[in-house]
Amino acid sequence: MTFISTPIFSPSSVRIFLISSIETSAESRLTIIIITNLPERIDCVMSEILILWDESSALTPAIMPTLSLPTTVIIAFMPSILVKWRSAFNKTAISALPSMCYNHRIMKIYITRHGQTDWNTKWKLQGRTDTELNDFGREQARKTGEGLRRTGIRFDRVYSSPLKRALETAAIMSDFAQEAVMKDDRLIELSFGQAEGTTGEERKSIPELSGFDNFFTDPEKYVAKEGAESFESVLARTADFWENEIRPLEKEVSNILVVTHGGTLQSLLLHIDHRELRDYWKVRFPNCSMNLVSLKNGSFKLEWNSRLFY
């Protein structure tokens, strides 16, 4: 066994050490161990790696008890990820790994709806009305933050709607001071004009709000009346947030938290999954449910949605 005590390279929190180099008549094999505290940052390397078990290696299956021989499956675990890389690379060629890693770097954007408010419990439309979290909403945010941290997720940057219920959720969930949270008007909830503060039952008896419920039941027929925001408007501002705020950060930031509202959250995700407007409400998002969007090589992708961590 040949041990090298210094990393071959160390991009951010990732360190790769050459453990052994084994020469055979057929090929050169390099055994590499990758150690990281941030598993999401190893994705960039994984796509370039083929696992190859070498029976002559001193690294035994005891380290990876789920490994069967032979295997071509990448097996990852925390806090270490062990891979065997079949390659004709020598140590000089390995120096090209840092650029390869950054070329495959994945940004992850975690998007959530604010915690519960008293108006949520009464099914009142909130819109731009600046309601605050109730105690259960604060507990949702706290438990979600703890759940994320247990899985190793921490944030480099946090964005929030400027409304109190979102801003407090962002601070509690991320463990950032409110002053460190980046408030962005593009994440604010839609304005509902005269409908704010009303329930569905109450709206039935207000003539000026006739047709408002198309907002939920038939979005293509919804007409925003005085003081309310149209779908066209919210779709434009959330697209601007993705393209002019988030996309330029791809090479700079790994994990971002975005805290917004139920209506605006749908618009943010519609830009990614390209739903038709008629399917605007196809997915429901409980308070503090989490959605993951990735950005890799300039392309956004919805990885999963509506997961609860509390």
Helix content: 25-40%
> Architecture of the largest domain, CATH level 2?
3-Layer(aba) Sandwich
Arithmetic mean pLDDT: 76
Structural class comes to alpha/beta
- How many structural domains does the protein architecture include? 2
Number of strands: 9
**Neighbour order of strands in the largest sheet:** 6-5-7-4-8-9
Question: What is the H-and-E element order?
Answer: EEHEHHEHHEHEHHHEHEE
What is the CATH superfamily label of the largest domain? Phosphoglycerate mutase-like
Shape summary? globular
Helix count from the secondary structure assignment: 10
Distance between the termini: 46 Å
What does this structure look like?
This protein has 310 residues and is α/β, with parallel strands linked by helices. It has 2 domains: 14-102, no CATH class; 106-307, Phosphoglycerate mutase-like (Rossmann fold, 3-Layer(aba) Sandwich), CATH 3.40.50.1240. The protein is built from 10 helices and 9 strands. It has helices spanning 43-46, 91-94, 97-103, 118-121, 135-150, 164-174, 200-203, 214-217, 231-246, 262-273; strands spanning 14-23, 28-36, 80-86, 106-113, 157-160, 182-183, 255-260, 290-296, 299-307. A 6-stranded mixed beta sheet has the order 6-5-7-4-8-9. Strands 1-2-3 form a 3-stranded antiparallel beta sheet, with no helix packed on it. Strand 8 and strand 9 form a beta hairpin. The longest helix is centred in the middle third of the chain and has 16 residues, at 135-150. Mean pLDDT is 76; it is low at 1-104.
